[in-house]
Amino acid sequence: MRTYLLLFSLLAVAVFGCTNKEAAAPETGPVSGDCSTKQISSAYVYGLVQRTCTGCHSGSTAPLGADFNTLAKFRSFISNNEAVFRLRVTGPQADMPQGSGPLPQAVRDSISCWISNGMPE
Questions:
Q1: Domains in the chain: how many in total?
Q2: Could you say which residues form the signal peptide (predicted)?
Q3: What is the 3-class SS of 39-75, one letter each residue?
């Protein structure tokens, strides 16, 4: 009888002690929403690019000529290949950066807003 009581007690503790309380969401960058109210800077976007993209996308060996070594080269690539960039980086089927999977949705939304707003400084 003691064994059943002990097992029941442990089960009760496990069920009631492990409630699904939401943890605070991690910081993922500016929240998605209306792009006309967002002020996303080039420094923010290019900082992300340097951390997540330039490992593969730099120099003459960059895939598809997507050399993101400088902000100017990054902007130029987007200006000439916006549809491809949006598809691969900010779109719903994004597959970049390779190996780590798509960026968090809020970050992708921020980059998309930055492009939509004309890539402001």
A1: 1
A2: 1-24
A3: CCCHHHHHHHHHHHCCCCCCCCCCHHHCCCCCHHHHH
